[in-house]
């Protein structure tokens, strides 16, 4: 046995040098294909996003869920944070003097029976007033009346100690849009109970 060990160690070292360290869990072919088709690459979200809570309906947020990092950690299968390569390029080119910015992130859940992508907006750089100003770029004068209720609800949640870091916009199942709204889906099909009732303006009893 003593003679065998050095030989085995040398062989293992050569193998590692030639082939590298094997990952513990490789992504499935289905996940690899979707990443390629959508131009998705790995990305590490900022701590402020992972530590914050998220809404699941932009216009009428009924609840806050999360925090984002806890939601990701509670998934039953392997997960990866991803970003579109074009979005990453846009993010890298943003004006440092204007940190207010939102961008799309994908939380990929790669299970043996299917692939799920939870699609988020990282809005952790914004407060509610900046959030509505950002929407004014796209909705012009309609932004104020359309999102007035949402802004009031988010301001109340933040004042109560629930920082709002983003929004879950939609969910993809094997690359196809899930017709169920994220707000309904989170409460019924993802083992993700709400943490704050935005309509009542109070935390949800746990």
From TrEMBL:
Residues 1-26 form the signal peptide. Keywords: Signal. This is Lipoprotein. It comes from Solidesulfovibrio magneticus (strain ATCC 700980 / DSM 13731 / RS-1).
């Amino acid at each position: 046995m003593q003679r065998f060990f050095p030989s085995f160690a040398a062989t293992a070292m050569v193998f590692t040098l030639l082939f590298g360290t094997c990952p513990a869990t490789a992504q499935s072919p289905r996940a690899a294909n979707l990443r390629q088709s959508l131009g998705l690459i790995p990305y590490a979200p900022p701590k402020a996003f992972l530590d914050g809570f998220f809404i699941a309906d932009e216009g009428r947020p009924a609840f806050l869920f999360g925090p984002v990092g806890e939601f990701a950690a509670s998934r039953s299968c392997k997960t990866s944070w991803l970003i579109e390569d074009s979005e990453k390029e846009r993010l890298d080119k943003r004006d440092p003097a204007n940190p207010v910015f939102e961008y799309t992130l994908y939380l990929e859940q790669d299970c043996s029976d299917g692939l799920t992508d939870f699609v988020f907006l990282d809005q952790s750089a914004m407060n509610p007033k900046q959030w509505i100003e950002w929407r004014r770029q796209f909705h012009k004068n309609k932004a104020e009346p359309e999102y007035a209720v949402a802004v009031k609800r988010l301001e109340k949640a933040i004042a109560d100690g629930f920082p709002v870091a983003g929004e879950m916009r939609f969910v993809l199942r094997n690359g196809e849009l899930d017709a169920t709204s994220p707000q309904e889906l989170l409460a019924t099909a993802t083992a993700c109970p709400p943490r704050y009732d935005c309509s009542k303006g109070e935390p949800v009893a746990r």
